[in-house]
Specification:
- The longest helix is centred in the first third of the chain and has 17 residues, at 2-18.
- 42% of the residues lie in helices and 10% in strands.
- Residues 8-24 have low confidence and may be disordered.
- The N and C termini lie far apart (52 Å).
- By secondary structure, it is mainly alpha-helical.
């Protein structure tokens, strides 16, 4: 029975081996490679969002793509209360759990060390609100008391690839 399986496996693999892979056309300066192989490095993102900015954007309760100070305060309170703080405060581990849930990772900013203003190893809502007040002020670029999506994203210039010479040609490695 085994001698029969090898030819069957080779027959099944033949279409995949026989494919003539063609690169996706990229214009006159075609730098594409056949499908299934690595392609030219993707350029770095020019629009980035801090995890805390994504959280703040989610505080928009009326769907107008703007976060008022009232929405901000209510959203922050909701996020804090969702962690069922014991005695009105989160331990550093509780803060890490909050950070993972609301910011996407335990190691995002603000850190518990910069949030715990009195250094008692607990974070109260007042301490969290004070830290987030600084963030609100930083993001509110036009100082109108409302955070727009434009204020919550960061635009950074497009960086040339690491092997770019500046004359349109690539440096050889």
């Amino acid at each position: 029975m085994r001698p029969f399986l090898l030819p069957l496996a080779l027959l099944a693999a033949t279409p995949a081996l026989a494919q003539n892979r063609v690169g996706i056309p990229m214009g006159e300066k075609d730098t594409s490679r056949p499908i299934g192989q690595s392609t030219v490095t993707q350029p770095a993102a020019t629009v980035i969002v801090e995890p805390v900015a994504m959280m703040i954007a989610a505080f928009d309760s009326d769907g107008d793509a703007r976060v008022t100070r009232a929405e901000f305060d209510a959203g922050l309170r909701r996020s804090f209360d969702s962690m069922n703080p014991r005695d009105g405060a989160l331990s550093y581990i509780g803060f890490s759990d909050w950070s993972e849930r609301w910011l996407g990772d335990r190691n995002t900013l603000p850190s518990p060390f910069e949030t715990d203003a009195d250094g008692d190893n607990k974070i109260t809502f007042a301490e969290l609100a004070a830290r987030f007040d600084l963030l609100f002020k930083r993001f509110d670029a036009d100082k109108d008391g409302v955070l727009s999506r434009r204020e919550l994203v960061t635009i950074r210039p497009q960086m040339p690839p690491p092997n770019y010479r500046g004359d349109g040609k690539r440096r050889k490695r």
